[in-house]
Write a structure and sequence with these properties.
By secondary structure, the protein is of the alpha/beta class. The chain has a single domain (about 1-249), classed as 2-Layer Sandwich (Nucleotidyltransferase, domain 5). It has eight helices and six strands, in the order αβββαβαβαβαααα. It has helices spanning about 1-20, 80-95, 110-115, 140-145, 170-180, 195-210, 220-225, 235-249; strands at about 25-35, 55-65, 70-75, 100-105, 120-130, 145-155. It has a six-stranded mixed sheet, with helices on both faces. Helix 1 (about 1-20) crosses helix 6, helix 1 (about 1-20) crosses helix 8 and helix 2 (about 80-95) runs parallel beside helix 3. The longest helix is centred in the N-terminal third of the chain and has 18 residues, at about 1-20. The radius of gyration is 18 Å and the shape is globular.
């Protein structure tokens, strides 16, 4: 079963690359969702310290606010290399004829990646969140996330609309990931034991979300809203298209 999942996930990556091109984007938000593979980063042994396929695994997502489409994504550490990778994918996915607004969190790696990859086609701002730790009552400090004390809107380049400097929509998509993918559920033993299994599960889910799942607020799929497809794909159709994309390569 896992071999079938990995195969389907790898094929769905090709569907994203084939169909999500020259999308007319207006408002893109980027964020990273944390998970881990095999064990948490702090539990790694000295022998595992340099193994990048064990420990922290961040799902980087570029999400279009109006169409609800995942334009680009990748899996990896929160590094400059991965920031460049997701921005390159975003450049390939969006149309050069339309300028869009881009909002990210305060991760510094975005600054260089956006400047080099897509500065010519976006107005870029960051929404920086300042956190404070919850009071250490009844184990709250251990299991509860840090509270947001304030948010700071920072214009980086171009002329972004201050009212649209927001990451709420991509964060809502991250919640969808966590509720629909068992591997991302916190405080359980459902976490991925192998990197390729997590990547395949994310790839299959994101392709399904874009082409097969009707969005509640749109009443159509994100791919239909973006004008990429004209009907709701079934899972069978998604996998058949993925197979054809693989044969054409």
């Amino acid at each position: 079963m896992l071999k079938l999942l990995v195969y389907a996930g790898n094929q769905c990556d090709k569907v994203m690359d084939r169909f999500i091109r020259n999308v007319h984007a207006t408002d893109v938000q980027c964020d990273e969702a944390w998970s881990y593979v095999y064990k948490k980063e702090k539990h790694k042994t000295p022998e595992e310290a340099d193994d990048e396929f064990i420990g922290d695994a961040w799902c980087w997502v570029a999400f279009e606010r109006e169409t609800k489409m995942v334009l680009a994504w990748t899996l990896g550490r929160r590094t400059l290399e991965k920031a460049f990778e997701v921005m390159l994918k975003l450049r390939r996915a969006t149309s050069p004829k339309c300028r869009f607004q881009l909002t990210t969190d305060g991760l510094q790696a975005y600054l260089s990646a956006v400047d080099e990859m897509i500065r010519d086609r976006c107005d870029f701002a960051q929404l920086i969140k300042v956190y404070r730790q919850p009071l250490p009552e009844e184990g709250e400090q251990r299991y509860s996330p840090a509270e947001v004390a304030e948010t700071v809107k920072q214009v980086i380049s171009g002329n972004p609309d201050p009212d649209r400097i927001c990451t709420s929509h991509v964060e809502r998509f991250n919640l969808t990931l966590r509720t629909q993918i068992r591997r991302l559920t916190r405080l359980t033993n459902g976490f991925s034991k192998k990197w390729e299994n997590l990547y395949a599960a994310l790839s299959l889910h994101i392709a399904y979300y874009n082409f097969c799942q009707i969005h509640g607020s749109l009443r159509v799929t994100p791919a239909m809203q973006a004008g990429i497809t004209d009907h709701v794909w079934s899972l069978k159709e998604l996998l058949l298209v993925a197979q054809r994309c693989n044969e054409e390569r």
